[in-house]
Every structure is written in C-alpha cells, then in structure tokens.
C-alpha cells in the first residue's frame, strides 16, 4: 500500500477544547484529511487567544489520529495594552517596523514553531496555514512558502490594510476561501496572479435527533428562546446585541429569552431575559440550536459563521448583522434568515421572526436545503484536496 503523503497544518491554537471558528475548521479538516495524508499540526501551547498563556504541555501528542506538535508561546498578551497600541497604527502613518512590532504583540509569539517549520518543511508534501492574521502564519509562510495553501479566514478589518499582509498574500501557492464574499474581498486587496484558489468552505454536521427536551430540562428553559452561540465578546457584536434585545423586550414583555452559550469574554449587562448558560458540549449545543426560535449572529466581522450554518442545517433561521457581507450573503443565497443594520431594523426583524411561525418554518426549510447542497463534507474535502495537490505541484 502506498504511503500517504505528509501534510503540515499550521494554526495558532488546536484541540477539542479550543473554541474559535478558524481553529474548529482547522481541526475538522485535519481529522478528515488524515484518511488521505499523514497530518502533522504545528501549533502553540495556548488555549486562550486573549492572553496566549501556555496552558498545554509542549511536545508531540496524537489527538484523534492527528499528530500535534505544540510550541511554547514566548510572550503573553495584555489585550488592553495591545488594543491601545493598535489604535496608534490604524488609519495613521506608520512604518513597516511598527507593523512587525504589532504582529509580535498580536501573537502568538512562537519563533520555535517557525524554526521547526523551516527545518522540517522538506518532508511535507504541502503545508496549510489557517488564519492570515497571526504571527505563525506570517512568519511560517516566510519560512515555508513552497507548496503552501493559505486558508486566510479573512474579513474586512483594519489590519488587512497593513503592508506586511500585502507581502504575505504574495507568498502562498494556493488559497482556500470559506465564502464567495471572502474570496471577493481578498481579490480586491491582493493580486492572486493566477494562483489556484477556490471557495472550499466547511462541512456541517448536526445530530439527526437533538435532545431538545433534555436540554430544556437540564437548563430550566421553559418558554421560547433565541440563541447566540460563540465567543461572547463585544468585538463579536454581543454588547450591541444585548442592547438591541433590551429595546425589543421593552416593547414586547412577552419576548423570548436570549440564551448565550460559549466562552464569556466581556462583562454581561444585567438585562431581563438574558441568560448565560456557559460552555456546552456539542450534543447540548446542537439541542440548544434545534430548539431556538432563531439564532442570532451579531458580529460585523465574519469569514464564515459555523453557528449560522449549524442552525440552518437544523432548520432554524438566522437574524444576522448586515454589516457582515458574509452573513448577509448566507441569508440572501439561502433565503434562510433576516438581517439588520441598526437598532430599529433589529427590533422589527426580531419581532417579525418571533411572531410569524410560518415565516420561521419557511426560512428554516430553505436554510436546511442550502447547507445540504453546499456544505457536505465529501464536497468540501474534495476542494481542499484539489488545492493541496495544486500547491504541491507548483
């Protein structure tokens, strides 16, 4: 039997207990591609993207059939200090050295990972890098650009305008995008110069029969509710979402509860009807999604939104922030949800979805069909393999 080619995957955090869209995507792709490749993940000892604190042991281990090599982060991040420094660069004159200093502060600062990649790059058939933004991707591509695939998970944000990323986007041999709007954004900013590129996406799987009754009993959820699933962070639009929800509830005291699940990364306002349930297991999360009237996706910056697609797969419509081109595109192409640009539109759309069961059912059916046609793993993995082989042949 012919030996499987070696595939390297570089990502800033990795593991079943690590949450985050690009990290979850990297793990899902790594585990499924291990059937076709000998996959080695090069990553950090960090669980938390805020501080990059080393919480996992350095060295090698096997996780779900994938070899994972962890490297210690050399510098923890003070997020407030980093944000203050960032504001001195965004839309203001600065130098390349300022941007490289920003990249180091952004982290995770793992020069040992880059040195190992440079030393071992010759043994890999190809190397995939997940997320354009971070230190391991920028310096890793500098060290091992040949036979590289970048999965940038890009959205329109100030750092994308930095000149260092113009340098970096010139290096990969192939690109895998998550959505059409993401691909269009990258092409509008960086010349791809005929290099292979495709919208690869992600596969979406949900349990066939989520235990909604069990979820309700475990968490004392008696009435109707809407759901936010993900990192609960002001940068993800969550503070605005809670404020807009409070406005709706002020108009309709019969409003459904707003349940929040995921890692809490901001102070939670004391708003009637808002309840934080903590971080749930995947089966419990799927049950929470399946029982919701609709799912809320308030982030203005998204490159995919797994939570929205999981809701669609379960026949649950979405209410999303129209400032995210990706979220708006999902809802329009699927005809699976509504979108808002401000508080007034949020209140109107929230009320329409909550009060019109037939509309929710129709949007939910459309969303389920959209995921079935576009986000099956067999289709997605074929796209990734095509890009890997294209990069390996260049």
Percent of residues in beta strands: 15-25%
Distance between the termini: 26 Å
Helix content: 40-55%
Q: What kind of oligomer do you see?
A: single chain
Whole-number count of domains: 2
Strand order of the largest sheet: 3-4-2-1-5-6-7-8
CATH topology of the largest domain: Rossmann fold
**Global Rg:** 21 Å
Shape: globular
Low-confidence stretches: none
Structural class by secondary-structure content = alpha/beta
The second-level CATH architecture of the largest domain is 3-Layer(aba) Sandwich
Q: CATH H-level name of the largest domain... which superfamily?
A: Glycogen Phosphorylase B
Mean pLDDT: 94
Instruction: Give the H and E element order.
Output: EHEEEHHHEHEHEHEHEHEEHEHEHEHHH
Question: How many individual helices?
Answer: 15
User: What kind of sheet is the major sheet?
Assistant: 8 strands, mixed
How many runs of DSSP E, i.e. beta strands? 14
CATH class annotation of the largest domain: Alpha Beta
Model description:
The protein is an alpha/beta fold and 394 residues long. It folds into 2 domains: 6-203 and 376-393, Glycogen Phosphorylase B (Rossmann fold), CATH 3.40.50; 212-374, Rossmann fold (3-Layer(aba) Sandwich), CATH 3.40.50.2000. The chain has helices at 21-33, 79-87, 96-106, 111-120, 135-143, 163-169, 180-189, 212-218, 238-251, 282-291, 306-313, 325-334, 343-355, 357-374, 377-393; strands at 6-10, 38-44, 59-63, 66-71, 126-130, 148-151, 174-177, 197-199, 225-229, 257-261, 274-278, 295-297, 318-321, 337-340. The strands form 3 sheets. An 8-stranded mixed sheet has the order 3-4-2-1-5-6-7-8, with helices on both faces. A 3-stranded parallel sheet has the order 9-10-11, with helices on one face. Helix 9 (238-251) links the parallel strand 9 (225-229) and strand 10 (257-261). Helix 4 (111-120) packs parallel to helix 5 and helix 8 (212-218) crosses helix 10 (282-291). The protein is globular and about 60 Å long.
């Amino acid at each position: 039997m012919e030996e499987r080619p070696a595939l390297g995957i570089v990502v800033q955090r990795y593991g079943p207990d690590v949450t985050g869209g690009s990290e979850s995507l990297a793990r899902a792709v790594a585990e499924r591609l291990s059937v076709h490749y000998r996959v080695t993940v090069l990553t950090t000892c960090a669980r938390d993207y805020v501080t990059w604190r080393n919480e996992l042991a350095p060295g090698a281990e096997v996780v779900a059939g994938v070899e994972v090599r962890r490297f210690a982060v050399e510098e923890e991040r003070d997020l407030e200090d980093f944000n203050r420094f960032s504001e001195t660069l965004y839309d203001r004159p600065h130098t390349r050295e300022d941007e490289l200093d920003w990249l180091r502060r952004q982290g995770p600062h793992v020069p040992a990972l880059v040195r190992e990649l440079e030393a071992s790059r010759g043994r890999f058939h190809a190397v995939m890098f997940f997320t354009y933004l971070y230190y391991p991707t920028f310096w890793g591509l500098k060290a091992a650009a040949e036979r590289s695939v970048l999965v940038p998970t890009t959205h329109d944000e100030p750092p994308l305008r930095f000149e260092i990323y113009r340098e970096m986007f010139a290096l990969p041999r192939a690109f895998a995008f998550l959505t059409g709007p993401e691909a269009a954004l990258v092409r509008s900013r960086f010349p791809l110069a005929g290099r292979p590129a495709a919208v690869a996406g992600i596969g979406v799987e949900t349990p066939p029969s989520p235990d909604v009754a069990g979820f309700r009993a475990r968490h004392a959820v008696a009435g109707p509710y809407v759901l936010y699933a993900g990192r609960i962070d002001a940068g993800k639009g969550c503070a605005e979402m809670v404020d807009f929800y409070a406005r709706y509830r002020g108009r309709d005291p019969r409003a459904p509860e707003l349940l929040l699940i995921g890692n809490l990364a901001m102070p939670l306002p004391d708003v009637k009807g808002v309840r934080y349930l903590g971080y749930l297991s995947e089966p419990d999360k799927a049950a929470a999604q399946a029982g919701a009237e609709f799912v809320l996706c308030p982030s203005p910056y998204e490159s995919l939104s797994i939570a929205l697609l999981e809701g669609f797969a379960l026949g649950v419509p979405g209410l999303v922030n129209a400032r995210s081109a990706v979220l708006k595109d999902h809802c329009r192409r699927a005809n699976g949800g509504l979108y808002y640009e401000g508080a007034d539109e949020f209140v109107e759309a929230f009320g329409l979805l909550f009060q019109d069961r037939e509309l929710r059912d129709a949007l939910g059916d459309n969303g389920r069909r959209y995921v079935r046609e576009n986000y099956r793993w067999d289709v997605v993995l074929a796209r990734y393999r095509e890009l890997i082989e294209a990069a390996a042949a260049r």
